Amino acid sequence: MYGIRPGDKRPEAAAFLGLMADQERNLRGIADDARYFWHMEFKLSEAPPSPAWPEGIEVQPLVASEGERRFYATLEEAFSDHWGHVPVSFASGKKRRMRHGFDPGIWFLAVADSEPAGAAICSISEGVDWVDSLGVRRPWRKRGLGLALLQHAVGEFHQRGLRRIALGVDAVSAIGATRLYERAGLTVAQQHATYAKKLRRGIELTDADDEE
Length: 212
Known about the structure:
By secondary structure, the chain is of the alpha+beta class. It has one domain (37-189): Aminopeptidase (3-Layer(aba) Sandwich). The protein has four helices and eight strands, in the order βββααβββαβαβ. The protein has helices at 68-78, 90-98, 145-159, 177-183, and strands spanning 13-20, 33-43, 57-61, 107-112, 115-125, 128-136, 164-170, 187-200. The longest helix has 15 residues, at 145-159. The relative contact order is 0.29.
């Protein structure tokens, strides 16, 4: 489980197993349900288009260690309504990020009137440019900010001479993330299936706050 047990609620117990798409047929009829995730990529053959920022948006890089908290708070809020999201503390999130090619020059915070609107955290690993997290706060969705952040990141990769971009995404994202990435030119390179088998009934941890 996730190490989180709200109050005296009995958490839902479930087993999760991730498989490649060509392996999943062995679990059909055994697991309760499945969730699909895409590994998407594209290769730059020319300079990407300049981002069209929504009015009032300014993009800022990570300039100081204290600024990391603004990135994490922004992405934590942006991902709070995603499937399976469980809150992660700043300390835990920072430790995880530091293990994956930390580069403050490819962290981008979109700000409107000094308030964060969205953020993108990227890294570089073995010649691949990863968009690790890209999220937009609810008040700023459906204005093109997500696409602008992605294009801004890709533009920075291009200036550095990097050409292969990759990311992972929920294939049935409720907020349309897959459509955004397809508009930017990414295509599906792999599909992964995550199966869940309910071991006992209880309270789903990610839903516990709604019942308070």
